[in-house]
TrEMBL record:
One of its GO terms (molecular function) is hydrolase activity. InterPro entries: MBL_Glyoxalase_II (IPR051453), Metallo-B-lactamas (IPR001279), RibonucZ/Hydroxyglut_hydro (IPR036866). It comes from Neobacillus piezotolerans. Its cofactor is Zn(2+). Keywords: Hydrolase, Metal-binding, Zinc. This is MBL fold metallo-hydrolase. SUPFAM superfamilies: Metallo-hydrolase/oxidoreductase. The keyword Translocase does not apply. Residues 12-192 form the Metallo-beta-lactamase domain.
């Protein structure tokens, strides 16, 4: 399996495309600029199978409908944020003057539990990692040694918790119990900024010192 990031929108939210040798792909967090993403997918001759959302903040969902409609594919989102897609007050687009309110149609599939998932040849684990938002999830591809962490963990930082439903204590618990427990060489694909690894964050992330960082 291969992957690549596509930073989208004014906040440069990382959309990730993971694809197999047969050119099937999964799209994570198409935040904006649908035409840009479609052109990249077309250029690489990729066939999308689904949209997976780490959470439902506006900068991660803005291109969901045009991508879904273009490829006729389903959207997956945690059930705790089922109503957020169409509600600017919840998804945050009503709180920031960066553009028109974001309203997206409901997700076809709601994630209700953690566990192993198989989707069109892709196999991965779903971890509930709330704190940045109540329905935040991370997607772990053990065979490939990578995790799509959304806005839970960044290079040298962690997700903000001052938006609706945010909880710092819950976020720290999610990071330490779900993410830092992964193999240290696991590649972390965050919602913003550069790619990192679990080991690097255990060593140098100032927000994690004293909460399980290596001595």
């Amino acid at each position: 399996m291969n992957w690549f990031p596509v930073p989208l929108g004014g906040l440069q939210t990382n959309c990730y495309v993971l694809y197999s040798e047969d050119r099937k792909c999964i799209i994570f967090d198409p935040g904006e600029e649908a035409n840009k993403l479609i052109n990249i997918l077309s250029g690489k001759k990729l066939e999308p199978a689904a949209i997976m959302l780490t959470h439902a903040h506006f900068d991660h969902i803005g291109a969901v409908d045009p991508i879904r409609d273009r490829y006729r594919i389903p959207v997956y989102l945690h059930e705790r944020e089922a109503k957020w897609l169409g509600d600017p007050a919840l998804n945050g687009s009503g709180l920031f003057p960066v553009g028109p309110p974001v309203r997206v149609r409901h997700a076809e599939h709601l994630i209700k539990n953690e566990g192993r998932m198989e989707l069109d040849g892709f196999e991965f684990d779903i971890f509930e990692t709330p704190g940045h938002s109540p329905g935040s999830v991370s997607y772990y591809f053990s065979e490939n040694g990578l995790v799509v962490s959304g806005d839970a963990l960044f290079m040298g930082s962690i997700g903000r918790t001052d938006l609706p439903g945010g909880n710092e204590k819950e976020l720290m618990k999610s990071i330490h119990s779900k993410l830092l427990s992964l193999p240290e060489d696991t590649i972390v694909l965050p919602g913003h900024g550069p790619v990192t690894t679990i080991e690097d964050e255990m060593d140098s992330n100032p927000f994690l010192h004293g909460f399980g960082s290596k001595p």
